[in-house]
Specification:
Layout (H helix, E strand, L loop, with lengths): L1 E6 L5 H9 L7 H6 L6 E6 L5 E6 L7 H8 L4 E7 L6 H12 L5 E6 L6 H15 L8 E4 L8 H14 L12 E10 L3 E10 L1 E3 L3 E5 L3 E10 L2 E2 L2 E3 L3 E7 L11 E3 L7 E10 L7 E2 L2 E7 L2 E8 L5 E2 L4 E12 L6 E5 L6 E9 L10 H8 L4 H11 L4 E2 H7 L4 H6 L5 E5 L3 E5 H21 L6 E2 H8 L5 H15 L1 E4 L2 E4 L8 H17 L6 H8 L3 H14 L3 E4 L2 E3 L1 H16 L6 E2 H8 L3 H13 L3 E4 L2 E4 L6
Parallel strand pairs: 1-3, 1-4, 4-5, 5-6
Antiparallel strand pairs: 2-3, 7-8, 7-15, 8-14, 9-13, 10-11, 10-15, 11-12, 11-14, 16-21, 16-23, 17-20, 18-19, 18-22, 19-21, 22-23, 24-26, 25-26, 27-29, 28-29, 30-31, 32-34, 33-34
Length: about 625
């Protein structure tokens, strides 16, 4: 369990941690000289049951709230420290607001310096604490009064921490979660080089792992790992550790950066969030308000954006977008704190819903955010399928939730359809069936109106019946439905497979004239121009007919200007087999094939290239072999 301190300056946080662990967390000379904590400090202790607790001691002075925020991110338990003589002070309230906004529900209130006050004063402070916690997530938190000087109450505090640690399981480390580590300190050590400390937020990190410093995008290797001062091979989600990075300069990484798995490196400068404004704020939080965003260990200036004219009142919550001055790493569920433009006052906080929002907000965007806010990915996916008729890109969803792609695939409902379009787009099974029916109905009307057309352009069909679907998704959908609905795709067109654009009196007359000519020509297949002269059919009319006829399967296109009957092509395929059989190594040349079929070399090559495309022959340099069809 990781425990952070919180509370006003000079209320005894560092002394409390030193008494519990024997470690002085004030490491800077200035801290020792002034007697106050300026930066985050770290310590640990081992409980009687052998379990280790890590402590993050944060500064209490208002000038160092930024440093305090970098320390309390992703802790499991907080000790809210209140001095018995001073009582509740400004940073007591602000730190309590912060830990509540960060979603730290587990905590203990520790009233320190018990030895300095009488019983009446102690009782009054305890009553004030009850009032302070009322209405917060800490409403039922334990309150323990101690004296680090005399040791009174310290055993009770240790028992409280042991009980909390016994129920602490850290962050869930589900299979498929990508590694993310937030950096809160960087330094160098002689003989080791660059070392970073921080917390594993998701997944796990092991010695030898290749990670990426984000947002910079620099790849690094984990040379060594330490947890609580001892070497370890792997650190898991919810654990603090120190990582020795190989071949990296200290200046390359800084507080606020992340170390992530390569698949999790997706820097972003916009976040769609669910925010809440503190009830103590005096005014509305409006569109384009400048704020400081504290996320992970980073502090980034940003602008708050909402619908023009919209605002969030004190004590209220809303979906909004943060536009950051620089890129960061973020994932769904990351907690954040908002401070005012001068970074002197905490105004609210929230949680990241979508770290990769679209450029433009659609009318359905709020509903999409509400679906993502479900904190149950399977439920979110079900809701999104209904909300997004254009489909859901599963790669986007994997990035949002920081998961390996296979994990997302496992969550796809059995009645949904996944289309491969370079990416993977999911549609509901019902939507696919409805679109399939609509495609068939529209093509039936098209064929009735344009009997001579080989098919309808996919672009036109998409625009008419499924404008919301991106073109690549629509084409994948039509391909999927082709077998089920009896559709045929040819080039940029689609048609009902049974449709024959040549089934009309004018084309039938020409076909009855040229088909016997093609049959009698056998291997000496005439070009369209030659056939036009022989049949006395205008060249352009004949060329158009033969291209349309090839779409019906009644002609095979060798080239743009030469077509053969299917039975002629079957005869020519058999001739290729005979030619190969006559060769000792089963390999034959175009010249040998020409001699067998009795044509010119140019026509023989055109025929062989057509057989290559059909998968009947296989070219090997200047020779060819018969391709063996296994039927698989």
């Amino acid at each position: 369990m990781i425990v952070a301190t919180a509370g006003h300056i000079d209320h005894g946080k560092t002394t409390l941690v030193r008494t519990l662990t024997g470690i002085d967390t004030d490491r800077l000379p200035e801290e020792k000289a002034r007697g106050i904590s300026i930066d985050v400090g770290f310590a640990h202790c081992t409980l009687a049951n052998g379990q280790t607790i890590g402590f993050v001691d944060v500064p209490g002075h208002e000038r160092f709230v930024r440093n305090m925020l970098s320390g309390v991110y992703a802790v499991g338990h907080v000790l809210l420290v209140i001095a018995a003589d001073d009582g509740i002070m400004p940073q007591t309230r602000e730190h309590l607001h912060i830990v509540n906004l960060l979603g730290v529900a587990q905590g203990t209130v520790v009233i320190t310096k018990k030895d300095r006050v009488d019983a009446a004063r102690l009782a009054q402070v305890e009553l004030d604490v009850v009032d302070l916690l009322r209405g917060t997530a800490w409403n039922s938190a334990s309150v323990i009064a101690v004296s680090a000087l005399t040791g009174e109450g310290m055993d009770a505090l240790r028992k409280r921490l042991a009980a909390a640690a016994a129920t602490e399981h850290g962050a869930a480390e589900d299979m498929g979660v990508l590694a993310r580590f937030v950096v809160d300190r960087v330094f160098t050590a002689a003989g080791s080089g660059t070392i970073v400390t921080g917390t594993v937020i998701a997944g796990s990190i092991g010695v030898g792992d290749m990670l990426v410093i984000t947002p910079a995008g620099i790849q690094v290797r984990v040379r060594k790992l330490q947890r609580h001062g001892s070497a370890t091979e792997r650190a898991h989600a919810g654990e603090r550790c120190a990582i020795n990075l190989a071949n990296v300069e200290q200046a390359t990484v800084s507080r606020g950066d992340w170390l992530v798995a390569a698949e999790a490196h997706h820097p972003t400068d916009r976040l769609d969030v669910h925010l809440k404004v503190l009830i103590s704020e005096v005014g509305l939080l409006k569109h384009w308000t400048p704020v400081h965003v504290h996320i992970g260990a980073a502090d980034i200036p940003a602008r708050l954006t909402m619908r023009r004219g919209a605002s969030v009142a004190p004590g209220e919550g809303a979906f909004a977008q943060l536009r950051l001055q620089r890129s960061i790493n973020a994932a769904h569920g990351d907690r954040l704190i908002l401070r005012d433009q001068s970074s002197t006052r905490t105004v609210g906080g929230g949680v990241v819903i979508d770290p990769f929002p679209p450029e433009r907000r659609s009318a359905q965007r709020l509903a999409v955010l509400a679906a993502l806010d479900a904190y149950d990915l399977r439920a979110s996916l079900q809701a999104l399928i209904v909300l997004l008729p254009q489909g859901i890109e599963l790669e986007w969803l994997a990035r949002v939730f920081n998961l390996q792609f296979d994990k997302i695939l496992d969550l796809v409902p059995t009645d949904a359809v996944v289309l491969k379009t370079g990416l993977h787009t999911i549609l509901s099974g019902e939507q696919v069936l409805q679109l399939q029916r609509t495609v068939v109905e529209r093509l039936d009307r098209f064929h009735a109106e344009y009997k001579n057309a080989t098919g309808m352009e996919l672009v036109q069909l998409n625009a008419e019946i499924a404008r919301e679907l991106p073109m690549k998704v629509f084409v994948a959908l039509v391909k999927l439905c082709a077998g089920r609905a009896g559709l045929q795709l040819h080039g940029s067109q689609v048609s009902i497979a049974s449709h024959d654009s040549t089934d009309n009196p004018r084309d039938l007359v020409v076909w009855q004239r040229i088909r016997p000519m093609l049959h009698d020509a056998k291997a000496s297949i005439p070009s369209v121009r030659e056939l036009s002269v022989l049949s006395r059919v205008p060249l352009q009319q004949l060329r158009d007919l033969m291209h349309r006829k090839s779409g019906t399967g009644k002609l095979v296109k060798l080239t743009l200007e030469r077509f053969a009957l299917p039975e002629t092509m079957e005869m020519l395929r058999q001739k290729a087999e005979q030619t190969a059989a006559s060769c000792s190594d089963q390999l034959f040349s175009a010249a040998q094939y020409r001699d067998v079929i009795g044509t010119g070399r140019g026509l023989a090559i055109e025929i062989l290239e057509c057989l290559d495309k059909k998968g009947e022959t296989l070219r090997r340099g200047d020779l060819r072999a018969i391709r063996i069809n296994t039927g698989e």
